[in-house]
């Protein structure tokens, strides 16, 4: 089983990557047989821009896109910029084939300086993956700066709980999906059928 | 094996001088290139068709008719003729007329067109692109083969007792190619009719085009037109050459960096590694071009894009002179090891001969 992790953090080290790693660890604890591939979008930033300009992916970016398309589960983590996903994060999914994630379980997560932007997961990331016909797990994980510490308040110190819950949901969907056969090779519609479809009924 | 050039017909400022040719200059430049094509021994000149600025060739048969009158051997073609937004009746008439004036030196390439607003400007819906390409071509095919046509379809007004005039020269319709960069339906269509299939082979990695060409070859055989290796394949290409490789790289770089289609993106070196673009010496262009057959199999037509990104006419004509110089090497290279069963691209003479042979066979069968 293949678990692919897309992290759109820009700094090194990055809290987005930190969250991605925590989610990955929690998921692989439940699906130990999963092979994990991590894709740092920062490393592909120029390739992604070039794809936008030329209309095709260079070899390195294509390998990343193929990995995402072949994933049995995807963890997608972005920093929140200007009230939404980062432009780099969106651009990566813009150049991904719009059928590549059909039916794929996806865990969405985001980081930000303040918890006030946490609903970006619901109003930006969830519709994006709904459009791509992915199966987005119910729990989306947002980590604000304060989540990396702790206030001693059990009602707000919930990041580990949310990570585990989201990972559990993703793991369950990945296990359910593993039994599904891979899609058949693209087949061509015979010309007679294409022509017949145009005839008046 | 046929060699030629295909042009998009864009009006693009020269990035090194900022000078933008007028539409008149660009149109005259295109026909000058066509005359040059005949002069250097190329076989084909193909023009694009566009209905929006910055492109000038909205009326391909007008341009090709002018060229026909001033050339003797050159095959006049298109890259592409819009089978979606044009009325197939008008395509049948225009190209049959051109065929007569050019004494049969005409073929054409069907394409759908990828400019969104052109569809509504012509009263069409881009979402119906594939069905229109299929139905309109079915009608065009019939109009050239049946003297009196009754027709009813989805995309144009019905025809009762219609005869497209003039009838094709000698009763032999022009050979048709189908161009597509991503649609298996079009490869399937070309295979069904036993028509040619063209992959533009520019701007994208060749593995992308390889899939469609392989599909076309398999389906060509499936429909009984011959073996997969006998399918009629055309391929594009793009180069900039100078005697010294470094001169080519230095001179072309500003054009590359500012090109409308791919400029301001990857470096020229990356683009050369990823796509069929060659910028270098004549020998490098020969080597790269000859390598296409390893990807696509032995094929019938090689067209080059030589005049985009604001290159001035003088430079384009120099490029064509260099192309003329390497043409014998290209012809020899492609002929080497080419299996005997791989046919040449059909032309008017070969189609007429095939028709007469078939007609004779039918007549003999009737006598028996």
Briefly summarize what is shown:
The complex is a heterodimer of chains A (201) and B (368). Chain A is α/β, with parallel strands linked by helices.
Describe, in plain words, how this protein is organized in 3D.
The complex is a heterodimer of chains A (201) and B (368). Helices cover 42% and strands 18% of the residues of chain A. With 201 residues, chain A is an alpha/beta fold. In chain A, strands 1, 2, 3, 4, 5, 6 and 7 form a seven-stranded mixed β-sheet that branches. The longest helix of chain A has 20 residues, at 159-178. The mean pLDDT of chain A is 92. Chain B is α/β, with parallel strands linked by helices. Chain B has one domain: TIM Barrel (Alpha-Beta Barrel). Helix content of chain B is 45%, strand content 14%. Chain B has twelve helices and 13 strands. In chain B, the strands form three sheets. In chain B, strands 3-2-1-13-10-9-8-5-4 form a nine-stranded parallel β-sheet, with helices on one face. Chain B has a two-stranded antiparallel sheet with strand order 6-7. Chain B has a two-stranded parallel ribbon with strand order 11-12. In chain B, strand 1 (2-7), helix 1 and strand 2 (44-47) form a beta-alpha-beta unit. In chain B, helix 6 runs parallel beside helix 7. The interface between A and B is medium-sized, with 20 and 31 residues.
